[in-house]
Write a structure and sequence with these properties.
This protein is an alpha/beta fold. It has 14 helices and 17 strands. Strands 1, 2, 3, 4, 5, 14, 15, 16 and 17 form a nine-stranded mixed β-sheet that branches. Strands 6-7-8-9 form a four-stranded parallel β-sheet. Helix 8 links the parallel strand 11 and strand 12. Helix 2 runs parallel beside helix 3. The longest helix is centred in the C-terminal third of the chain and has 18 residues. The radius of gyration is 21 Å and the shape is globular. The chain starts with 10 loop residues before the first strand and ends with a helix. The relative contact order is 0.17.
């Protein structure tokens, strides 16, 4: 059952708290207040909350805490929660070849369990909105997309479900095995049905749907072109993997006679309604095209490191004006599954360019909040703490042993260890309290995931 929004007239007051609003001016308050009315932010500012407030159902003393916008995850593969720890020392192409045969045996019940494991890890690390790129739909697998949506709704996470796809198999020069792909016409029919069935474009929506063919090496040119036409006809966003590895770049040059960005441009896949995962191997021309068209990037630092893909040029992208958010990526290539830790990893990895100010504590936080909101097209609703925006908020404890000696609370969050999460609000509901999920039984999810992983492993034998 989906988590319902709180009554529209009830208030929650948070006071005596450090606030990083991540608004256009990066406004911060050393000791301020936030008032939640129903599922939106009614007030934010310095000092105590207004005294006239009525119907206050909860008051939180935020002493020793930092409140930020909830984190936004722009790229994930939830189903991979039940295939973690495999192909541990492979680059992307070899990793995919090793795992495709296992993934091709999933079904809706396994995906439901994996989805809840992935969503739980995200929520417990401060994430309030996530996108999930699911592209494996075996014949006889049941309603896989519906199972993932149901799993997320039970936890209370704001969600963008990406109806992914693959139609270029090994016989066509692609990477996936022949039995792991779908027919192009079937993909387009299913993608349109997913939008018609699930997508809710209203303000405050808990569920968006986007269309997301997997990658240049697993989908046909025709599918890319027709998916772009379909998405724009239906008014939804587009997502895929792009420029992830040097091998992908070489693949595109051999098959299409051009690099990934030029290839995507030729298929109608650059624009403000498009975002791509990784974008590690981008030259100056590629970055300029992304900036000119408003094409977004999901930066996945931990996964890029796990698969030895390289270091994305995030500082250069930001300087050019490219929309950039953070992504966990699938947990078979980022086993922690946490978004909160990506703040620190993004900051540190991007300084390996040799620039100590490549990302700052605050620009890392912006990547994980407003940056992600912009990439998902939801910057008017989430990503900052401003009056009228949705009450998706993370309250971090920064006065404990791991953080008490860091005077700057934002640095405590993005340079220190991930702080304990005292409360996480999604849509005005407290879905995490003192680090524990409130909407589901964590132990039951852990058991279901362990069983699902064993079941899938047995099918792959």
């Amino acid at each position: 059952m989906a988590v319902q929004p709180p009554p529209a007239d009830q208030r929650i007051v948070i006071e005596n708290v450090a606030i990083a609003t991540v608004d256009a001016n990066d406004t911060e308050y050393a000791r301020g207040h936030v008032v939640i009315l129903g599922n939106t932010i009614e007030s934010v500012g310095d000092g105590p909350a207004p005294q006239w407030l009525d119907n206050v159902v909860r008051r939180i003393n935020g002493e020793g805490h930092l409140i930020t916008p909830g984190l936004v995850n722009t790229h994930h593969h939830f189903y991979q929660w039940i295939t973690r720890g495999l192909a541990q020392d492979n680059i992307l192409f070899d990793w995919l070849v090793a795992l495709y045969p296992t993934w091709a045996r999933i079904d809706d019940k396994l995906v439901h369990a994996a989805t809840q494991g992935s969503a739980a890890a995200l929520l417990k690390s401060g994430c309030t909105t996530a996108s999930d790129h699911h592209y494996v739909f075996p014949q006889g697998g049941g309603d896989i997309l519906g199972a993932s949506i149901e799993g997320v709704q039970e936890l209370g996470l704001r969600f963008t479900a990406l109806r992914g796809s693959m139609d270029r198999s090994q016989k066509d020069g692609g990477l996936p095995p022949d039995h792991a792909v779908e027919r192009t016409e079937d993909i387009l029919i299913a993608s349109e049905a997913a939008v018609d069935t699930w997508h809710d474009s209203s303000f405050g929506s808990m569920l968006h749907v986007a269309i997301a063919p997997c990658s240049p090496f697993s989908v046909s040119t025709e599918l890319l072109k027709q998916s772009a036409e379909l998405a724009r006809r239906k008014g939804v966003r587009l997502h895929t993997h792009g420029s992830e590895t040097a091998e992908e770049e070489e693949f595109c040059k051999q098959l299409f006679g051009m690099g990934p960005t030029d290839y995507f441009e030729s298929t109608g896949w650059l624009g403000e309604d498009v975002w791509m995962a990784h974008c590690v191997h981008m030259n100056d021309s590629d970055i300029a095209k992304f900036a000119e068209t408003g094409t977004g990037v999901a930066h996945c630092p931990s996964s890029n490191a796990r698969l030895a893909a390289g270091i994305a040029r995030v500082p250069d992208m930001l300087k050019a004006g490219v929309p950039v958010g953070l992504g966990v990526d699938g947990t078979a290539s980022n086993e922690s599954g946490e978004l909160g830790t990506e703040l620190r990893n993004a900051l540190l990895i991007n300084r390996l360019h040799g620039r100590p100010d490549a990302l700052t504590a605050r620009s890392a936080l912006r990547l994980g909040t407003m940056g992600g909101a912009r990439v998902l097209g939801r910057q008017s609703e989430i990503g900052s703490i401003e009056v009228g925006k949705l009450a998706d908020l993370a309250l971090w404890k920064v006065d404990g042993i791991m953080h008490s000696s860091i005077a700057d609370p934002v640095a405590a969050l993005t340079l220190g260890a991930l702080p304990p999460l005292s409360v996480l609000f999604v849509n005005g509901n407290a879905v995490v309290e003192k680090g524990i999920l409130t909407t589901v039984d964590e132990d039951k999810i852990a058991l279901a995931c362990a069983r699902a992983a064993k079941e899938l492993a047995s099918r792959a034998v």
